Amino acid sequence: MKLATIRTSAGTRAVRVEDDHAVDLGLPDLGALLAQPDWRSRAAADGARLPDPGRDVAPVVPRPEKIVCVGINYRAHIAEMGREVPEFPTLFAKFPPALVGAYDDIVLPAESEAMDWEAELAIVVGSPVHRADLDTAARAIAGYTVLNDVTARDWQYRTLQWLQGKTFATTTPVGPHLVVSDAQDAAAAALDARMTCHVDGAEMQSASTADLVFGPAELVGYLSRIMPLSPGDLIATGTPGGVGHARTPKRYLTDGSVVTTRIEGIGECRNTCRAEK
User: Fold this and answer.
1) Closest CA to 199 of 135, 266, 118
2) pLDDT 10s digit of each residue in the chain, 277 long?
3) pTM, whole model, 2 decimals?
4) DSSP H helical segments within the chain, as ranges?
5) Which residue in 98, 181, 185, 214 has its CB near the most CB atoms, within 10 A?
């Protein structure tokens, strides 16, 4: 089942996406849907038919309570950056103003000259969870979506803390859909999906999510020991090898660059970069 938050003339709506149309779920966005204890039943219910939403999609959860990101979590990326495999997840945060829809423009901030791509699998939390074991953590996963953690490298590495390079406004595509996982098998559903990132048609990243050091259930469980997780929270699980900063010479996004981020079975974001005026 695919769910989305779409834009209409009257505002955003939470919908179920079918082959040639969408079904209005009676709520303004997927954050509001996931806040309902019976959200799986509501997502499968009948509703008013809307035209095919096409490209007019908002971020799957427009205003998540938390956006937690994981760094150095793909073995190949760890190797290209010359790092050791971490014992624990490396964590940082984003904030909702960073998010854009799957087909919106990425705004390259005037402050940075080193904006880089990072294709990522994102977990969407579907139920409240705190201090969870692996089974409970797996059941708390609503499903998965596509995210690109576009990063200002010249700001990221100003200090040992990465936040400043990770949450510039309107830089992080997420969507187009929330692909709902089976409640009993959420952890395994995305463990072997092919993920790619193309920039201007050239493949820059290609990996399987099986290369993750810390998988979805492990991450949800670990984070839930630090803080309660809420429905609609996003967890970006890290990027594989192939980022521009690790290339020789280094390569970054420029005005007009087209970034296509795809995860097999989950979806594709296609975003044009625009220099901030």
Assistant:
1) 118
2) 999 999 998 899 999 999 889 999 999 999 999 999 999 999 999 999 988 777 899 999 999 999 999 998 998 778 777 788 899 999 999 999 999 999 999 999 999 999 999 999 999 999 999 999 999 999 999 999 999 999 999 999 999 999 999 999 999 999 999 999 875 554 555 578 999 999 999 999 999 999 999 999 999 999 999 999 999 999 999 999 999 998 999 999 999 999 999 999 999 999 999 999 8
3) 0.94
4) 30-34, 39-44, 75-80, 134-139, 153-156, 186-189, 216-226
5) 181
* CATH number of this structure's domain 61-275, picked from the four choices 3.90.25.10, 2.40.10.10, 2.40.50.100, 3.90.850.10: 3.90.850.10
Q: Report how far residue 191's alpha carbon sits from residue 186's, in angstroms, rounded to the nearest whole number.
A: 10
